[in-house]
Amino acid sequence: MSFFSSLGQRVLNFVTAWGDVTILTGTVLKRCITRRGYFGRTITQMISLGIKSLPITLLTSTFVGMSFSVQIVKEFLRFGAGEMIGGIVGLAMWRELAPMMTAVVVAGRVGAAISAEIGTMKVTEQIEALEAMSQDPIDFLVIPRVLACTLMMPLLVGMADIVGFLGGFIVAISSNRVNPYAYFDAAQKMLYPLDIYGGLFKAIFFGLAISLISCYVGLNAKAGAKGVGEVTTKAVVFSLIAIFILNYFLSVAIY
Amino acid sequence: MITLKNVTKSFNGNSIVRGIDLSVSEGERIAIIGPSGCGKSTLLRLLMGLQQTDTGQVWIDNEDITQMDIKQLRRMRTKFGMLFQHAALFDSMTVGENVAFPLREILHLPEAEIQARVKDKLLWVEMSGKEHRMPSELSGGQQKRVGLARAIACDPKIILYDEPTTGLDPILSTNIEDLIVKLNKESHTTSIIVTHQISTILRTADKIYLMRDGVLLPPETPESIQESQNPYIKEFISGGLAS
Ligand SMILES: Nc1ncnc2c1ncn2[C@@H]1O[C@H](COP(=O)(O)OP(=O)(O)O)[C@@H](O)[C@H]1O
Ligand SMILES: [Mg+2]
């Protein structure tokens, strides 16, 4: 019985939390339009969250493009379909791999950073200090981070698209059996602008989800030093879950 | 100016504040003392509307803040300055930016005036020249002094002190107490000090309330409390002075 009631409580907490995140999303979106004065703070966050995530995004995306290409080149050459490789790599990178891998990296790096920062502020009474000085923590902390993350995510994915595709290119031509021109030619023939835009469109949602979840988790940190450690884990895990689920539905909806 | 009527508050079924009545007039210096975890910080939060009361009323300047919406609450809170237990300085900002924060965000002063006031307040708490330090580079006592500078930056009418001297050595404690006394003398602010450190209140308060089991005992003065026959008070005083 106690097992079921504690299970029930957990499910209830989980559902309540997602409900709260949804409400927070609504509040943030509404206030982005109605409130002013978060411009400077958003720029700061774009630099600290976005630009600083660029190196690791480029690195992972290059290697994802390369390893994907390794698999493809071998198999496709066996079927004599070498001239399709550029198209396949581009398709996979732009539609799925670059948005997903970038989101995973950002969830780890940015999700942990946001939730740790806000969580620390919460347990050290800084959030209360903000409120005591008549400030709104959502306007002050959440909106700049959500905006920054949502705007930077498509940019990061765009970069990941390019380096991933080029990583695939390098692997393909170094096999000495794929014509460099054919690689780009295939991409041009097989791919539509929607393949790129769709991925960038997904990225917007991923950025939104990561930042909102991480802010929410941080704001609800429990007192004590353990609280901060817990929230970073929570923020990353919940962001990842949200990204994988969102990705499926977005893929179905877009393509 | 401040009146609490039968205020209660509980957390997860744990009743922490169980019907507090309190009235504080302008310029008065009161202290609330009680053991850790008895609900002193909670009481301060209820006063500023940082937490909602379960029942009861909190009147600040003839307005019941329990009936206010968030906008009205934010306006009301500008009357207060609060020194948090651990100073609660924004750790992403320098000392100067911390003190400038309320001047910028509440009063929207021009930049030159902000800088002048920051200098002035830091001088007042004897932290001049530390504008560019980060809070993490300061000791606990220094952080509290910067916290005090930030709390008084906008010259509030009421100042709330949450454990202003807890965790500080006797010399630093005296130093903070001196600042509290000086502030009250110079600007006639109303002050409410919450602490479990008995030495602090003897010097900084006119009226002392003991908080016990979620209610306040009748007030004592710094003189009377030392001669009190109430066994609970006696125990608290002797324990407090001994430690
Ligand atoms: N937001 C909260 N949620 C749950 N319990 C709380 C909360 N705030 C305070 N408490 C509980 O209320 C009691 C009193 O806390 P507090 O007001 O901080 O005491 P004090 O400041 O006197 O040490 C503690 O037992 C604490 O655990
Ligand atoms: Mg306390």
Task: Outline the secondary-structure elements.
The complex is a heterodimer of chains A (about 260) and B (about 240).
Chain A: H1 2-34, H2 39-50, H3 54-78, H4 85-123, H5 126-132, H6 137-174, H7 180-190, H8 193-219, H9 225-254
Helix pairs in contact in A: 2-6, 3-4, 3-6, 4-6, 4-7, 4-8, 4-9, 6-8, 8-9
Chain B: E1 2-11, E2 14-24, E3 29-33, H1 40-48, E4 55-60, E5 63-64, H2 70-77, E6 80-83, H3 95-105, H4 111-124, H5 140-151, E7 158-162, H6 170-187, E8 190-195, H7 198-204, E9 207-212, E10 215-216, H8 222-227, H9 231-242
Helix pairs in contact in B: 3-4, 3-5, 4-5
Adenosine-5'-diphosphate binds near residues 36, 37, 40 and 41 of chain B.
Please give a structural write-up.
- The complex is a heterodimer of chains A (255) and B (243).
- Chain A has 255 residues and is mainly alpha-helical.
- Chain A has helices at 2-34, 39-50, 54-78, 85-123, 126-132, 137-174, 180-190, 193-219, 225-254.
- In chain A, α4 (85-123) packs across α7, α4 (85-123) packs parallel to α8 and α8 runs antiparallel to α9.
- The model of chain A has no long low-confidence stretch (mean pLDDT 93).
- Chain B has one domain: 3-Layer(aba) Sandwich (Rossmann fold), CATH 3.40.50.
- In chain B, the strands form 2 sheets. Chain B has a 6-stranded mixed β-sheet with strand order 6-7-8-3-9-10, sandwiched between helices.
- The model of chain B has no long low-confidence stretch (mean pLDDT 91).
- The interface between A and B is medium-sized, with 14 and 21 residues.
- The site of adenosine-5'-diphosphate has 9 residues of chain B, from α1.
